[in-house]
Amino acid sequence: MPSTSETVSDSMSVISLLGGEAVLHAKPRVPLEWVPLVRQGLPSASVDAAIRVTRITQSDLAHALNISEHTLLRRKREGMLSPEESGKLVRFARIVERTAVVFEDTEVALGWIQSSNSSLGGVTPLSLLDTEMGADVVLDTLGRIEHGVFV
Fold first, then answer.
1. Residue 95 has pLDDT above 60, yes or no
2. Mean pLDDT for the chain?
3. In whole angstroms, what is the distance from residue 13 CA to residue 41 CA?
4. Which of 108, 119, 142, 149 has the most CB atoms around it within 10 Å of its CB?
5. Domain limits of the chain?
6. DSSP character for 43?
């Protein structure tokens, strides 16, 4: 739960979800500043940070990123994700951040991501994040929720 001086979006920002400046060795403020970080590959500690902050299991995160658990473990040993894997992790973090903003509550947002949803065909939003199209559907659903459109 965020402190009174910290907003939900601060506590669930893409930067904080991925370990903050200490892990990323950068503090990107706009999407264009993420491009070089993704291209060089994010530190594998970003995976651990995402798991810690979201309390999503490593297995569920691997599925959401469409990365085998074996590969994820290997990347953690190597210390660096590939650019493609980094892009998937940033996409995941951006959707978690967006969910927290829409629901204005970290716990509700994390619960929603992991709960089956009738407007998503009865699957969890998390299970759709393994593809760009699935991620777009989740973002569209969040937009509908935010604007009060029946979902």
1. yes
2. 92
3. 19
4. 142
5. 8-146
6. B
